[in-house]
Amino acid sequence: MPDLYDVAAIGNAIVDVIAPATDAFLAQNNLDKGAMMLVDPARSAELYSRMAAAVEASGGSAANTIAGLASFGGRGAFMGKVADDKLGQVFAHDMRAIGARFENAPLIGGPATAVSMINVTPDGQRTMCTYLGASVEFTDSDVDPAVVEAAGIVYLEGYLFDAEAARRAFAKAAALAHGSGRMIALTLSDGFVVERHREGLMGFIESQVDLLFANDTEIRALFQTDDFDAALDALQYRVKLAAVTRGPQGSVILSQGERVHVAPEQVDKVVDTTGAGDQYAAGFMYGLSKGRSLQVCGQLGSLAAAEVISHYGPRPQVSLKDLAATRNL
Hints:
Elements: E1 5-10, E2 14-20, H1 23-28, E3 36-38, H2 41-50, E4 55-59, H3 61-72, E5 76-79, H4 86-97, E6 114-120, E7 126-131, H5 145-149, E8 151-157, H6 164-179, E9 183-187, H7 191-208, E10 211-215, H8 216-222, H9 228-235, E11 241-245, E12 251-255, E13 258-262, H10 276-289, H11 294-308, H12 320-326
Parallel strand pairs: 1-5, 1-8, 2-6, 3-7, 8-9, 9-10, 10-11
Antiparallel strand pairs: 2-4, 6-7, 11-12, 12-13
Helix pairs in contact: 3-10, 7-8, 8-9, 10-11
């Protein structure tokens, strides 16, 4: 079967509310800087009332990656759950407007569409408080076999490990993907996700994952070490392919005993790191889907990450396809 999609992603469908903040604001509201924390609707509303003037943007880690893929000119599909409410309609419109397939039926009579309150400090670090709402109602019945089987890469978001039903969806997607000879990719998403679900994640990685995305914090949390090189050594032969990002130190790509070091793309000023990892994954998988070398895949990832951290919001504001052309990538 020919690939209808370069990447089909499964993840939390979330609308981001992004505002500037100070370290003092984080302290006053008991927020752990740079972390993602799960909150209930009351806490989410409380934070919203205290935040500075904010920008709303459709988000969600895997959905952001599909937006980046589309900006490169790739063909993407997204599977996730929104409610039948205003924010859910906004999210669905935004996904379809970029040319991505998004056909999951909205949830009726349940929790509201998920929202993430994101406070960004002057150093560009984002601190997220997320109400998962309808997104955790995603189940294996929402996995479309036709989409999975028509995608070159099936990309799964680690945040979904917080929901048991979503883990069953992961298992279904992996079975369908492998049965069709497709590649399974997973992003670890956050160090706190790894700490909550280390055993389950490790089992899934070793048995199902072909391509793993992580940052240095997540990979050290996975192997319970402060030594980055030791974590790389532990990961080296557990997956066929891995891309590990290190912020201003670039990234390292692991492939069957080989290590490829990729320099970061230079940024004049880091404004907001929200979506950096998501966009790195977008560039990397776009390159992979087009048969590019691992070095170029990493460079495309770095380029996309650099673009998104130069402004507020988790999705590209310029054409990544055009930007890549200026770098001859």
